[in-house]
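queue> holo job accepted (magnesium ion)
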Amino acid sequence: MTDTRRTKEPDDLPSLWTHQPHEELTFRPGDKVADIDAAATPGFRGSKSDAPTLQEERNVRFAELQEMLYANSRAGDTRSVLLVLQGMDTAGKGGIVKHVVGAANPQGIDYRSFGKPTPEELSHHYLWRIRKALPQPGHIGVFDRSHYEDVLIVRVHNLVPPDVWEPRYDEINAFERELVDSGTTLVKVAMFVSLDEQKKRLAERLERPDKFWKYNPADIDERMKWPLYQEAYQAMLDRTSTDYAPWHIVPSNRKWYSRLAILELLIEALKGLNMSWPPADFDVEAEKKRLAAV
Ligand code: AMP
Ligand code: MG
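queue> job finished
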């Protein structure tokens, strides 16, 4: 009798997606930040009510692949994955860390957030703190903000002159080329919320005592600079979306969508490593006999 329990491979994209999020979301030359519809749900035909079940199911798949990556590193595989999260305040970076990455075993996750550099960090090259935070072999690294701040807030606020930040785009490309060549798969995600949605989320932070800790008065100053940020994000996408480390544009007004989409991007990246469970480096049958005897 045929086994009807499974009609598709576990790796199949759930049917609620019409396209791989990767195909829908990868930045294409000519894409304009000003045209992004942050409320859109590209490639997804389901609705919000489908999200909890689907996310739970795909979280399990993600966690399994993460464990496989970890297991292979024990057998000498040195590859790793690095999720780079960029987005304005309230875009939902923290939610991705909590609800998507949080599904995996923390043992194999190297999480790092990047805020305003410390005096020590400032005394070094901007990639110094980034290199120190790269994922170990077999781990999934998560950058909550990243080296891209050095061409975003730094550019918007003139923290260094243009002749200093301008060469950084090429330098970042070379840096990422080096990472990819050494076995790190980059998943670069730019999360976009509309100004209206951001206003709602900031207002909520001001209403709820349990959200005060997330609120920073400077968020409003950044918000007022949105046109300048738009330019900086556009330049970042135009100049650092490469075939080896492309950017993905994730509309993030609907948190359930951005989470599902980024989850699929991670699953796809892990699947691309073509892993299997590492074989036993001992004689399984002999070990069974030995165990039975004691
Ligand atoms: P948050 O992510 O809300 O904790 O905020 C961190 C803040 O640090 C954001 O406003 C970032 O733009 C800022 N930040 C991160 N990296 C840099 C950098 N290299 N230079 C200046 N500010 C930075
Ligand atoms: Mg913040």
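queue> Residues 51-74 form the longest helix (24 residues).
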